[in-house]
Design goal:
By secondary structure, the chain is mainly α. The chain has 11 helices and no strands. Helix 3 runs parallel beside helix 7.
Length: about 250
């Protein structure tokens, strides 16, 4: 595993910086996590799938909020016009016709109560902490770093391409309708990633800024990885579910 801590110390060309960013994803994106591998192998129980969907909802629900924070910090109308489509994708026209609603449909399709999912109260503490850290990062760090943290979308089609066919083939209670969230993302994520990557490559013009955007992407990969770590610890073979968190036997 590469240590990216000093990847830009001598300065990088735009092409070299992009190569490093893509290497971060190749090594640290959460499609490499054992929990994801169990999912694609058909080895998760329905209860484990329910826990994944419920906890992941916390992340899905915070996406338009972090994008709103990024949007508000830019004084460039063209940037804002492009970035606000991300909020529209997840909230939809009325707040409940976009990606968040489709993820809720995924969770309820797996048998989890909708109000339980939306409340987020039964999510793992580690999930809530990770999601909160991501929102804080996009609120407090420089705009360039906040934008760079979204570059995990470069790798989103890879994990969708692994996840969706495997889930349809290996879990007989999952249908294409259940997984309706993912189809629009195959177009949205590359569009958003292309814009963010161009923004980062243009503005990361010093070794210090280049290292900062690399670190931002590493941080975001760590957020996604830590969420699966928490699921594995809580709902894996030994099952250490913390007090108050969702238990698969719940209706």
């Amino acid at each position: 595993m590469t240590d990216f801590a000093n990847a830009a110390q001598n300065g990088l060309s735009a092409r070299e910086l992009e190569e490093v960013l893509r290497q971060v994803g190749a090594e640290r994106y959460h499609n490499r996590h054992p929990f994801h591998r169990l999912m694609t192998e058909g080895a998760l129980t329905k209860g484990q799938m329910q826990a994944w969907a419920l906890n992941r909802y916390c992340y899905q629900a915070v996406i338009p909020r972090k994008d709103a924070m990024i949007l508000a910090r830019s004084d460039d109308p063209a940037f804002r016009a492009a970035w606000r489509t991300r909020i529209e994708d997840h909230d939809g026209d009325d707040g409940w016709s976009g990606g968040i609603a489709r993820w809720l449909k995924l969770a309820t399709g797996l048998g989890v109560d909708a109000e339980m999912v939306k409340s987020k109260r039964r999510a793992l503490p580690a999930t809530r902490f990770a999601v909160g850290a991501y929102l804080s990062f996009c609120t407090e760090r420089p705009l360039l770093e906040a934008v760079a943290s979204s570059l995990t979308e470069l790798f989103s089609p890879v994990i969708i391409g692994e996840r969706v066919p495997a889930m349809l083939a290996r879990y007989d209670y999952i249908t294409e309708e259940t997984l309706a969230y993912f189809k629009p993302r195959l177009g949205q994520a590359p569009r958003d990633a292309e814009f963010a990557l161009a923004y980062v490559l243009e503005r990361a013009d010093t070794p210090e800024k280049q290292q900062a955007v690399i670190d931002a992407l590493v941080f975001k990969c760590d957020v996604l990885w830590s969420m699966l770590d928490a699921l594995m610890h809580s709902y894996g073979e030994k099952g250490h579910i913390p007090p108050g968190a969702f238990r698969p036997e719940e209706p």
